[in-house]
Design goal:
Elements: E1 17-18, E2 45-47, E3 59-72, E4 75-81, H1 83-88, E5 94-99, E6 111-114, E7 117-119, E8 124-130, H2 134-140, E9 147-154, E10 166-172, H3 180-188, E11 192-199, H4 208-212, E12 217-223, H5 231-244, E13 249-253, H6 256-269, E14 272-276, E15 295-297, E16 300-301, E17 311-315
Parallel strand pairs: 10-11, 10-13, 11-12, 13-14
Antiparallel strand pairs: 1-2, 2-17, 3-4, 3-9, 4-8, 5-6, 5-9, 7-8, 14-17, 15-16
Helix pairs in contact: 5-6
Length: 319
């Protein structure tokens, strides 16, 4: 795999997502991401990752629900039996979930969900979701043994540079789901991992146990409740960490403020930075063109978050 670095440029002239400009839609994707419109233009731009796409062709499965557990606050973990998807998913990729329609209010379109964990031997994948609206509240009521239609893995995930010795992952809330498998992959390659997990309070920081179980990982949980999640306080702490143990790669997801902080750290340390984006999606494959991350002009569409992302490289100003 090749890494997306600060010196990466777009593969074609229409690929850059100029940070700070409004997207074609209010882009949101369940389970991960940062809205590309929420990055100030002075802080660089996002570009497509170089190298071959992640994973293999996606597959469709009628997945049996193995578990659907409440983790805390408004967050739930659903485990699904989907052997082909489990075997092919790469860090940062996602699946499209469809609940079988029932009742007067049918859930018609699938929902994109980041793959937070997988067990290849058991053939299972985990998605973590927050109950925000009607659809996710319906998901919380799904029982063990029920079936869902799942398509995946989808999109281009994170790239790990073989030369990386220390990886810093910084995420917030449900956005941490896109970073969890990246931490696992880096650990398996013998890389040191520093994981910063941001949330409103302890109850909402539901992925702390997962990251604490990753070998070679050091976890820093930061909270709004005590002010430790404020980038003005967190930034100097991470700068001190990187001064002591330099990181060659940084990955972030889930917060505009954390993205800005990570961009500043990348400039100061020379580390590469990759960012997971989020978007509304109807198909997740690039057919509907509903998740264009940037409108280039009347006759030119920008990259699609589902097909060209959801992970993009961040490029420093002037590069």
């Amino acid at each position: 795999m090749t890494a997306g670095g600060a010196d990466i440029v777009a593969k074609t002239p229409h690929n850059p997502i100029e940070a700070g400009a409004p997207p074609a839609d209010d882009v949101r994707r369940s389970g991960a991401g940062v809205d590309p419109s929420e990055v100030a233009p002075t802080e660089g731009r996002l570009v497509m990752l170089e190298g071959p796409p992640s994973g293999v062709q996606s597959s469709l499965a009628r997945a049996v629900v193995v578990a659907n557990d409440h983790l805390g606050d408004r967050y739930w973990r659903m485990q699904l039996s989907a052997p082909d998807i489990a075997g092919n998913t790469q860090p940062g990729q996602f699946v499209m979930l469809t609940v079988t329609p029932s009742g007067p209010s049918n859930w018609v379109l699938p929902r994109p969900m980041a793959v937070a964990d997988r067990d290849v031997a058991r053939g299972t994948i985990d998605v973590v979701y927050g109950t925000h609206g009607w659809g996710t509240r319906q998901m919380a009521g799904i029982g063990t043994g029920d079936e869902l239609t799942v398509v995946g893995p989808q999109g281009n995930g994170f790239r790990l540079d073989p030369g990386t010795k220390h990886l810093l992952v910084v995420g917030r809330g449900i956005g941490l789901c896109s970073l969890s498998l990246l931490a696992v992959a880096a650990s398996k390659r013998g890389m040191a991992v520093s994981a910063v997990l941001s949330a409103r309070d302890r109850e909402a920081n539901v992925l702390v146990p997962f990251f604490e179980a990753v070998p070679n990982a050091k976890v820093l949980a930061v909270l709004d409740a005590d002010g430790s999640s404020d980038p003005e306080a967190l930034g100097p702490r991470l700068q001190a960490l990187l001064d002591e143990v330099p990181a060659q790669q940084i990955a972030t997801c889930g917060s505009r403020r954390l993205l800005r902080m990570c961009a500043a750290l990348a400039v100061r340390t020379g580390a590469s930075l990759q960012v997971a984006l989020e978007a509304h999606m109807a198909c997740g494959m690039g057919y509907c063109h509903g998740c264009s991350a940037w409108v280039q002009g009347a006759d030119q569409e920008g990259p699609l978050v589902c097909r060209d992302g959801p992970v993009f490289a961040w490029s420093a100003p002037g590069r």
